[in-house]
Write a structure and sequence with these properties.
The protein has 263 residues and is mainly α. The protein contains 10 helices and 3 strands. 64% of the residues lie in helices and 4% in strands. Strands 1-3-2 form a 3-stranded antiparallel beta sheet.
Length: 263
């Protein structure tokens, strides 16, 4: 029988080029840094419901100074940055609005809250009650002192390169380390909320260097006292420190009111 002629295989068509995608605007340096900080601090996926995990991530971003008080949040851009759906983000927004960190304005969108003067006074009252007691009653060999040391070293490095946003974030970590000395998960959770509100209050000051520079050395002084075992003196120094900080923030807030900066 005659053998069939061999068929030439048709040459493969080149794969179509992917459709061009619209470029996305890069995140601002502070926001990009804050996203990285929040991602590192977040628990591993699967250990929390998605909305809880994203809520914690946004709190971390607020604490890291990613958003300014009164800033409008773009739902689309933020959902893309976090890799979540807009429906999930709306649920997160509702929770953070209930916590007082965001506010919703009908037909306008979601905005970062601007702390009131009463809120600032209350934040510092809570800080003195929690932080000073945690430091005064600390266990001498508590591992949270390592977190405090790391935060001080990060602040010193950031100060050397004049990165005052990073100095502020390291300051938040230092005070979180103080609260960890109390060995209470409830206090840790409460204080994380307080820190997010505190960073919003700090955001009212335009000059981050003026705000954060004095406290780098104060934090180191408090840490040195704690590492020497003089927790009573460290607690007293911290109380003076918090009174000083409160006066500065309130003075700036009062000037903003006089200038009509507060809506």
């Amino acid at each position: 029988m005659p053998t069939p002629k061999s068929r030439r295989s048709a040459p493969a068509r080149p794969a179509p080029s992917p459709a061009p995608t619209a470029p996305t605007a890069p995140a601002a340096p502070a926001a990009a840094h804050a996203i990285a900080v929040a991602t590192d601090a977040a628990p591993p996926p699967g250990t929390q419901p998605l909305t809880d995990r994203v809520s914690e991530q946004l709190r971390q971003m607020l604490t890291a100074g990613a958003f300014a008080p009164g800033q409008r949040l773009s739902e689309q851009a933020l959902a893309e940055q976090l890799g979540i759906s807009r429906n999930t983000l709306r649920e997160v927004f509702r929770g953070l609005t209930k916590d007082g960190l965001l506010r919703h304005e009908p037909n306008r969108g979601v905005f970062v809250s601007v702390p009131s003067m009463a809120a600032i006074i209350d934040i510092y009252r809570v800080r003195r009650l929690i932080e000073c007691q945690a430091l005064a009653q600390a266990y001498p060999r508590h591992p949270a002192k390592k977190h405090m040391r790391q935060a001080v070293e990060q602040a010193l490095q950031a100060r050397d390169r004049a990165d005052w946003v990073a100095v502020g974030t390291a300051n938040m970590a230092f005070h979180m380390g103080i609260v960890e000395l109390a060995d209470s998960e409830r206090l840790n959770t409460l204080f994380a909320q307080v820190l997010a509100e505190l960073r919003l209050a700090f955001g009212l000051l335009r000059d981050a260097e003026f705000l954060h520079a004095p406290y780098v050395d104060m934090n180191r002084e408090i840490l040195d006292l704690a590492e020497a075992g003089d927790f009573a003196k460290a607690s007293a120094r911290l109380n003076e420190y918090l009174v000083h900080s409160e006066r500065i923030v309130l003075a700036v807030y009062a000037r903003k009111l006089e200038d009509g900066g507060q809506r």
